[in-house]
Amino acid sequence: VQLVESGGGLVQPGGSLRLSCAASGFTFDAYGIGWFRQAPGKEPEGVSCISNSDTYYGDSVKGRFTISRDNTKNTVYLHMNSLKPEDTAVYYCATDLWTDCSHYYLDGNWGQGAQVTVSS
């Protein structure tokens, strides 16, 4: 499993960013895949996941973030709107190779991470 994130950066509060994750090494369209984040000194937090049977959003991002996937490009996206300073974290793309989103970032298949900083 190989996951490569891109699209992080610095954005002002209220702004938007799109993260991308290019996946390889597994049958992309068969499994759930998603994003979790980790801020300094905090525990990892599940952000969002998408599979053929379900979609998950963490409570703190519902209504602001949207996950999507393009199975022709083996890529998953995280569209982040109305960003807040508390969204600042390293965002990781992850898959546990489960067919749904009940378990998607616990087994160590992560990318290198993308830094998202929300600050004025």
Query: Considering DSSP H and I runs of 4 or more, what fraction of the residues is helical?
Result: under 10%
Largest sheet: 6 strands, mixed
Tally of DSSP β-strands:
10
Query: Which stretches are low in confidence, meaning pLDDT under 50 for 5 or more residues running?
Result: none
Q: What is the 3D form?
A: globular
Radius of gyration: 13 Å
Strand/helix succession: EEEEEEEEEE
**Mean pLDDT score:** 97
Helix count equals: 0
End-to-end CA span: 37 Å
Query: What structural category do the secondary elements indicate?
Result: mainly beta
Strand content: over 45%
> What does the oligomeric state look like here?
single chain
Strand order of the largest sheet: 2-10-9-4-5-6
Could you characterize the architecture of this molecule?
- The chain has 120 residues and is an all-beta fold.
- 0% of the residues lie in helices and 45% in strands.
- It has no helices and 10 strands.
- The protein is globular.
- The mean pLDDT is 97.
